[in-house]
UniProtKB/TrEMBL annotation:
This is CPBP family intramembrane metalloprotease. The keyword Glycosyltransferase does not apply. One of its GO terms (molecular function) is endopeptidase activity. The keyword Nucleus does not apply. Residues 142-234 form the CAAX prenyl protease 2/Lysostaphin resistance protein A-like domain.
């Protein structure tokens, strides 16, 4: 091991010097290229194992293994970047203290509550109905969906509101960093499902902006943003998996969500804005500064 360290020390020092002096856009591109480059061999093996061929539509049971393999690599790649740049996860908002659990719970509750309010409004207006007969499908789906939601929400927040936003903020004003990181967050969702994702792009961008506000409201920690993101993913995935909601067709799907995706409709936009407003009021009430 000492021999290996000695051999690779010059290369490590050169990479460290390059990353420290490079423009932020180069650092960001280097991270995403390294992430995707390391994932591609894993993706090929995974695609063979699940018997998926390029050009064919990914089924949900095929998408999850590919998604998990991509996401599980992200913290490892970011850890390498942190070692090379002498930074820590806390620099990107992932603090190792018990307080993050409280923030996580708060954000999760807000995510579920905001969706509950919006869907209650849709029920009242007759835009959708609740399939009570499917409640029996609910209980078995809750634990695995919760685990996936926490994993997806945590890693996406670490990458987009943590690493990406923080790095962009080094060279740009806060609002510019928020806009760019949220735009990248939205556009990268096109990797999985282009037809269903395109109508969601404005909603996904707005969601990214609100999650930046969530980090501000938490004093720079990712706890509330992680919980909020996970709460939205968990609630929507649970409703979809158990097929608890049926849309009546009383109004255009641009109101309820095109292709049954809330973020592709007015209802989802209202949900995100509602959560953002609550977070803004929270930060104002508790006097949290954005200059963390």
């Amino acid at each position: 091991m000492p021999i290996l360290i000695t051999l690779f020390e010059p290369l490590t020092n050169n990479i460290l010097a390059f990353l420290q002096d490079a423009p932020v856009i180069v650092v960001v591109m280097a991270f995403f290229i390294a992430w995707i480059g390391c994932w591609l061999p894993v993706a090929v093996v995974t695609a063979i194992a699940i018997k998926w061929q390029p050009g064919k539509t990914l089924q949900p049971e095929q998408k999850i293994p590919l998604l998990m393999s991509l996401y599980l690599l992200a913290p490892l790649i970011l850890w390498v970047f942190l070692r090379l740049t002498n930074k820590s996860f806390s620099d990107y908002g992932l603090v190792g203290s018990v307080s993050i659990l409280g923030s996580l719970s708060l954000g999760f509750s807000l995510g579920v509550l905001s969706l509950a309010i919006v869907f209650s409004g849709q029920f009242g207006l007759g835009w959708c109905s609740l399939q009570k007969s499917n409640f029996k499908l609910l209980l078995p789906t809750l634990p695995p969906i919760l685990l996936i939601a926490l994993l997806v929400g945590g890693i996406e927040e670490l990458i987009f509101r943590g690493f990406l936003f923080t790095e962009l903020e080094r060279n740009y004003p806060v609002w510019v960093a928020a806009i760019i990181s949220s735009l990248i967050f939205a556009v990268l969702h096109l990797v999985w499902e282009q037809r269903e994702t395109i109508p969601q792009l404005p909603g996904l961008w707005l969601m990214g902006m609100v999650l930046v506000v969530a980090r501000f409201a938490d004093g720079g920690s990712l706890g509330i943003a992680w919980g909020l993101h996970a709460g939205w993913v968990w609630a929507i995935a649970t409703l979809d998996t158990a097929e608890l909601i049926t849309y009546t067709g009383k109004v255009s799907e641009w109101y309820t969500g095109k292709n049954k995706k809330p973020l592709a409709g007015l209802a989802g936009i209202i949900c995100v804005i509602l959560a953002g407003l609550i977070l803004w009021l929270f930060s104002k009430y508790f006097g949290v500064s954005v200059n963390y």
